[in-house]
Amino acid sequence: MRTLTCVVIGAGYAGIHAVKEIRKLFKGQVSMYPLRLVLIDKNSFHLRKVLMFRPAVTNEDIRIPLTTLFPNGVEMVEATVSNIIAEEKKLLYVDSLGAENELNYDLLVVTAGSVIRCPEPEQGGTALTSLENAQEIRSLWLTNLKQAASENKPRERERLMHVAIAGAGISGIETAAEFAYYARKDAKQLGLDPQAVKITLYNAHQRLFLDGPAKVGMKLDQLLQDIGINTMHDKRVIKEKDGVVWFSNGEKQPIGLCIWTLGLLPNPMLSAMGLPVTTQGYVHVDVSYRVADMTGVYSIGDCARIVDPINGHVDGKTCKEAIPQAARLARIMLADLEGRQAPVHESYMKSFSIGLGPDKGLTWVNKWGLDFVVTGKLSWKIKMYTWDTASMLTN
Ligand SMILES: Cc1cc2nc3c(=O)[nH]c(=O)nc-3n(C[C@H](O)[C@H](O)[C@H](O)COP(=O)(O)OP(=O)(O)OC[C@H]3O[C@@H](n4cnc5c(N)ncnc54)[C@H](O)[C@@H]3O)c2cc1C
User: Fold this and answer.
1) How many CA atoms lie within 13 Å of 52's alpha carbon, on the beta-carbon side?
2) Cα separation of 96 and 148, whole Å?
3) SS3 content of the chain, % helix, strand, coil (to 5)
């Protein structure tokens, strides 16, 4: 039997799990379907995107070399895919040295993910959109603290030690909670009063946690307050300029550091690659993750619009969705090769686990129409396990 080439584009959570699951399933079928697996990513590492706030508050490295995740059996290509020519079953890419290349595939999995929304340059502040920006935030904060330590004017010291988190989705909440812990620790180390560090989370909506019930949003509010975070609802930050944040209602607030956490957008490269995308920019797939009009091409994770055929629910853009999608995808691909009926998408149960600093969290699960909430250390342990499993550090 001819060796099939299966290429996976993107080594985020969906991509690494797709590689793992395809490899596992096809290994058992090795005589039938000998497989060459190729993983292409812009980077030589898997970025633990869910921990993007960590380098903003500590020196933690959130990159995992791909060769550590897949020491053998998977070819790695560090390159940016620019085009998919479906009629010729080939893709074009630009490698890390800038050279253009092409690669033929039999099976292709697109897991090119999402990008973190950036404010406009004139809106100021710093957005938590990349490793480099996270490191810049850390450096700006430490500079502020050093200035505060030698500042005689109380109001200016107060401004320097006030951090604004603009955007109160899950990444904003988690970033605020991590800041509340580590920024106070940094202040103490410099001989400053840790309680003088002010963290304000600005929420453009009327409550937290729009993905779940209001009572869980209120619980989150309380837990944030307990760890010294002031949450301001219905307060849309429009810009930061010269140490002042401005709100849509015309009010303003002096601030030492403004961090934008504005959520995710579909990867803008998807349509440029030639993939069929929805009006919102997500890849069009059927209930078995097959890309419309592209034989042998599949897409899962943040970049695809995946709909449950039973209840019409559109899958969320989180790891807990991407990981079961990857396991199902491997079975779908094998079924398609064998000409059998392939499995179809099923929604994952409604649940969220939100980290609230280095030892606390809130986990919400909706099952049988009931809401289950776990908080404190147990929730934090669930969260840690989820983060590690998502990056394949637990197996
Ligand atoms: C701050 C933050 C906190 C979050 N917290 C949570 C959480 O607690 N729990 C949770 O479940 N989810 C969380 N999410 C969402 C989660 O990160 C995403 O759902 C997840 O990253 C989706 O995985 P993915 O593999 O589809 O995409 P991504 O992780 O975005 O990976 C896409 C990969 O594709 C690569 N790529 C893109 N374009 C190309 C190209 N043209 N050529 C080659 N490579 C390419 C990228 O380099 C990247 O490695 C969080 C997101 C953020 C930003």
Assistant:
1) 25
2) 42
3) 35, 30, 35
Over the stretch 119-129, which tens digit does the pLDDT of each residue have? 999 999 999 99
The pLDDT, as a whole number, for residue 150 is 96
Give residue 2's pLDDT band: very low, low, confident or very high (50, 70, 90).
Answer: confident
Q: Is 15 in the pocket of ligand 1 (CB under 6 A)?
A: yes
H-type alpha helices, 7-165: 13-27, 54-57, 66-69, 131-149, 154-160
Q: Check if 178 has its Cβ closer than 6 Å to any atom of ligand 1.
A: no
In the reported structure, the alpha carbon of residue 115 is separated from the centroid of ligand 1 by a whole-number distance in angstroms of 7
- Cβ(318) – ligand 1 distance below 6 Å: yes
Indicate left, alpha or beta for 142 from its phi (over 0: left) and psi (-120 to 50: alpha): alpha
In tens, the pLDDT along 193-207 reads 999 999 999 999 999
Angle subtended by helix axes 376-390 and 319-338, to nearest 10:
40
13 lines ligand 1 (CB under 6 A): yes
Is any ligand 1 atom within 6 A of the Cβ of residue 172? no
Which residue owns the Cα nearest ligand 1 atom 35? 10
* Ligand 1 contact via 134 beta carbon (within 6 Å): no
Question: pLDDT-derived band of residue 395, with 50, 70 and 90 as boundaries?
Answer: low
**Residue 362 identity (one-letter amino acid):** L
Rounded to the nearest angstrom, the distance between the alpha carbon of 83 and the centre of ligand 1 is 20
Tell me if 11 CB under 6 Å of ligand 1: yes
Decide if pLDDT at 76 tops 80. Answer: yes
Three-state DSSP at 127 gives strand
- Decide: 352 and 361 in contact? Cβ < 8 Å: no
Euclidean distance between CA atoms 215 and 208, whole angstroms: 10
Does the C-beta of 9 come closer than 6 Å to ligand 1?
yes
Q: Can you give the pLDDT at residue 218?
A: 97
Nearest Cα residue to atom 31 of ligand 1: 12
- Chain-centroid distance, C-alpha 125: 21
